[in-house]
Amino acid sequence: MKKPLVGALLALLLTGAAAAPAMASAPPQASAAVAVDFAGTVALSNCSGSLVRMPNSQPGDPALVLSNGHCLETGMPAAGQVVKDVNSTRSFSLLNSAGTKVATLRASKISYATMTDTDISIYQVTKTYAQIQSLYGIGALTLNDAHPTQGSSIKVVSGYWKRIYSCNADGFVYRLKEGEWTWKDSVRYTSSCNTIGGTSGSPVIDTTTGKVVAVNNTGNENGESCTVNNPCEVDENGVVTVRQGINYAQETYIIVPCVGPGNVIDLNRPGCTLPKP
After folding, report:
1. End-to-end CA distance of the chain
2. Residue-wise burial string across 169-185, b where 16 or more C-beta atoms lie within 10 A, e elsewhere
């Protein structure tokens, strides 16, 4: 898990907090990468996150904030547990392109959260996208509705640390096991995305499209196998691989089919594969 750990601040001081700007701003010119900055990212009390919209979300819809299931204020959901439509008043610091806080957003509920098959939390906030845009000049990041591409250039944008990591999608993991939890079809980063505690929940942005393709969630810290903070890869034949120092994210395209009109999470929608309560 990439929640703040004892050594996280020290690691940041040792490696430096400098970051290139990041999020989708202007449309890409020809084959040029989309500029990515902090606009639309948020900082939680213990994690990172982002203000997100579905491809068909409307300006008047209540806005959504995406982070990890293990970042919930109520604690980490057990394996097999799904949290849905639970009241919440959690606050989120909304950042602009420079990483400066411009507003505090307030949750009205946890629309959905789980650590089974994936590691996500989706909060509904008390303002609409149109209100946030009008008041603060910040638009939401759009979730891509397609599977990420191996080798694609990505950026992990941490609102908690106000730091951006650049790397590529190295590949996809059939099963990623950490402690009691198992995640399906996880994204494995190349080594330059050396994320630390506090980066949990950061949006993973494809620099070609500027869209969110995954949410950052864990990495193997000590070389242990399948323990907390030391996830292991398991292939279709049950072969276990440990990659110390390598970090991972959970794909977000699977969320899109589960969100209906008004940004309502409907697990019975066609194509929705998220775990049910």
Report:
1. 23
2. bbebbebbbbeebbbbb
pTM over 0.85: yes
In 161-223, at which residue ranges do the beta strands (DSSP E only) sit? 163-178, 181-189, 203-206, 212-219
> Cα separation of 137 and 150, whole Å?
33
pLDDT digits (tens, 9 = 90+) for 8-38: 443 333 333 333 333 333 333 445 689 999 9
List C-alpha distances in Å: 133 to 63, 90, 139, 179, 209. Answer: 11, 20, 6, 40, 21
Q: Using an 8 Å Cβ cutoff, are 217 and 182 in contact?
A: no
> 230 pLDDT band (50/70/90 cuts)?
very high
Identify the residue whose tokens are 């449309």.
27
**CATH 2.40.10.10 assigned to 153-253:** yes
Domains 35-143 and 153-253 share a fold: yes
Q: Where along the chain do its domains lie?
A: 35-143, 153-253
| Percentage above 70 pLDDT, the chain | 90
Q: What are the pLDDT digits (tens) for 52-101?
A: 999 999 999 999 999 999 999 999 999 999 999 999 999 999 999 999 99
- Residue in the structure block whose two tokens are 């700007």: 21
| Residue whose C-alpha is closest to residue 175's, from 243, 247, 254, 237 | 237
Q: Which residue has the tokens 């940041």?
A: 12
Tracing tokens 């959690």 back to the chain, one arrives at: 90
Residue with tokens 């944008």: 157
CATH class of 35-143: mainly beta
